[in-house]
């Protein structure tokens, strides 16, 4: 907060001076950011274009945070390493949930099971759930510049189920899924589906551990070795589409749940903290796979606790609180699922 305040003060001070001085101050801010994140551009033209994008994003962040300070917004934004990307560039690079694959593959064979959860009124669900506190969640990972979010969502859910069954939390290999699950319809760094990943794991009889099959952030040759397998599944459950109560039930009683969301907005790109609420979100045009690891209420606003795969430097140490009981905002309950073990 202090860093943002100081930078904003510099911009406001510069506004009292000449246009030339203002421009010099802006360039200085951009250069500081560029050096911080070790950005390198190939040409002067590219740097000028990236700087223009950065200033546009900076202005949006500053305007949003002014509204946040006036309590007109429930979450803060913050400039981060993605500041030189437009929302379109960012989405194409980082958001790899392929809704088109899902539509083409409505039937995934015997790997899909109907959701038969029916506790509902029979039990009292807790008001706060956080599976991190029960050791079912591995540390936040970073997918890099590869549209492999779907693989991180899938491993995250299976890591939780494997821990519940065996008592051992094992970090599983996203690279294994990127390289090897193409026969099931996934497309590596070009995107995929969590359900198709679960199907692949069932067919192969396992998925290798992160230690034996480390992440590369690029497509590579499949080298799955069953002797290095860290977990497996016997199928998966698709939770009733669009039903946040069913998702809550699963998140409370099953463990971490794979979900797909609309993460195409500048507000998501620069999320910092608070309960994320984006009315422009779509509940059907989904482009990013993440992991629900719990839920709760903050300052009177219900939220889903969501683990992302953009490193700990993004959001709340790699997590985001997304609006809950807000008419399935951003489609968080539209394509929720988890593996059976």
From TrEMBL:
<dbReference type="GO" id="GO:0031410">
    <property type="term" value="C:cytoplasmic vesicle"/>
</dbReference>
<dbReference type="InterPro" id="IPR025661">
    <property type="entry name" value="Pept_asp_AS"/>
</dbReference>
<dbReference type="InterPro" id="IPR013128">
    <property type="entry name" value="Peptidase_C1A"/>
</dbReference>
<dbReference type="Pfam" id="PF08246">
    <property type="entry name" value="Inhibitor_I29"/>
</dbReference>
<keyword id="KW-1015">Disulfide bond</keyword>
<comment type="similarity">
    <text>Belongs to the peptidase C1 family.</text>
</comment>
<dbReference type="InterPro" id="IPR025660">
    <property type="entry name" value="Pept_his_AS"/>
</dbReference>
<dbReference type="InterPro" id="IPR039417">
    <property type="entry name" value="Peptidase_C1A_papain-like"/>
</dbReference>
<dbReference type="InterPro" id="IPR000668">
    <property type="entry name" value="Peptidase_C1A_C"/>
</dbReference>
<keyword id="KW-0788">Thiol protease</keyword>
<keyword id="KW-0732">Signal</keyword>
<dbReference type="InterPro" id="IPR038765">
    <property type="entry name" value="Papain-like_cys_pep_sf"/>
</dbReference>
<dbReference type="InterPro" id="IPR013201">
    <property type="entry name" value="Prot_inhib_I29"/>
</dbReference>
<keyword id="KW-0865">Zymogen</keyword>
<keyword id="KW-0378">Hydrolase</keyword>
<protein>
    <submittedName>
        <fullName>Cathepsin L1</fullName>
    </submittedName>
</protein>
<feature type="domain" description="Cathepsin propeptide inhibitor">
    <location>
        <begin position="30"/>
        <end position="90"/>
    </location>
</feature>
<dbReference type="Pfam" id="PF00112">
    <property type="entry name" value="Peptidase_C1"/>
</dbReference>
<dbReference type="InterPro" id="IPR000169">
    <property type="entry name" value="Pept_cys_AS"/>
</dbReference>
<feature type="domain" description="Peptidase C1A papain C-terminal">
    <location>
        <begin position="125"/>
        <end position="340"/>
    </location>
</feature>
<dbReference type="GO" id="GO:0004197">
    <property type="term" value="F:cysteine-type endopeptidase activity"/>
</dbReference>
<feature type="signal peptide">
    <location>
        <begin position="1"/>
        <end position="19"/>
    </location>
</feature>
<dbReference type="GO" id="GO:0005767">
    <property type="term" value="C:secondary lysosome"/>
</dbReference>
<dbReference type="GO" id="GO:0005615">
    <property type="term" value="C:extracellular space"/>
</dbReference>
<dbReference type="GO" id="GO:0051603">
    <property type="term" value="P:proteolysis involved in protein catabolic process"/>
</dbReference>
<keyword id="KW-0645">Protease</keyword>
<dbReference type="GO" id="GO:0012505">
    <property type="term" value="C:endomembrane system"/>
</dbReference>
<dbReference type="GO" id="GO:0005764">
    <property type="term" value="C:lysosome"/>
</dbReference>
